[in-house]
Sequence to fold (396 residues):
Amino acid sequence: MAGRDAEKIFLSLEEFRIEIPSWGFANTGTRFGKFLQPAAAATTEEKFSDAGQVHRVTGVCPTIALHVLWDCPEGINSAKTIAALETKYGVQAGSINTNLFQDQIYKYGSFGNPDPEIRQHALQHTIDSIEIARKLHSRDITMWFADGSNYPGTANIRQRKKWFEEALKESHNRLYPEQRLLVEYKPFEPAFYHTDIADWGMSMHLSKTAGPQAKVLVDTGHHYQSQNIEQIVAWLLSEKMLGGFHFNDRRYADDDLTLGSIDPYQVFRIFHEILSYEWETGARADIAYMIDQSHNLKGKIEETIQTVTMAQQLFAKAALVDHAALADAQTRCDLIRAESLLQDAFNTDVRPQIQEWRTSKGLPQDPLKTFQESGYLERITKERAERNSHSVSSYA
Fold:
């Protein structure tokens, strides 16, 4: 590989960081039930411990996303405990994820619920989440809503839009100057007739209405089949409304599969749009790269390492695109040359350069193998197996 290309890869790896989710280490399942794993984490400390292992072998996962109800059971009083875990396991609290879908009161919605008391309850939960984020020095508060309806005529769609606008404005007003509100969208599931925030345009409208510290969060699994996600990314970049990603892969819908396991070229194209934007503007895009996966069958730590290393490879490949040559080909409508520039970068084997970068950082060349040989998995399996075997498989 030419020296300039190797330098591009090295520089891209220097800046790339990706956040891993606490819930990726716990027992999770489908709507039909949970599939239990003997080594699954059940406490916030166990999640921090597992996340620390991923960061130890990859060096690019310094933060762990936390879910308020699952990881902060004492609310804002959990901050002191979490701060101690940060020190102990070498990873920091990352994005704070609200939970506006689990409680029984949200059967008919949260911010879009016809009951004003329930809307207020959802708003207070959001305000509490903002305070937890402040205590933990976390920048991003992420919001995904299950709100919607299953049957025509059963919900006032326009009124619910107004309620969302009001609640998000109030949430935004409670943000501290360094914080951001990231608003996610999803076309369907669990609502099947209409979803209150069903696509990126709705999320962008609500974010802009909320205020300048609100941005759009793109979950790569939250799209219709064959939807051009990188076009959505390009538009959001153009509007300066892209706040972050929840990366995963899918075959049909929101499958939460390992990143790049189905369509790595799509993730490459997303990264390309971001790096192309940075080349054009001369400024780094302020984007939070985060993972959101449900590890039902694969080992949880191993799959997380797989995802992280794949993300590194695809980001490094995208960094190889010659933006000046591509811009020239696009201007000349030289379709073959333009497409080949992307394909050639994607088909480049960047693993040797990534291994060199890891060596320069004192990291193992093969993170997955190093973890598998560390003995950590055997130890936690022995420690957690009996407890997990007595867990009741419940519907998710």
Observations:
- The longest strand covers residues 92-97.
- The two ends are 48 Å apart (CA to CA).
- DSSP finds 15 helices and twelve strands in the chain.
- The first helix runs from residue 3 to 15.
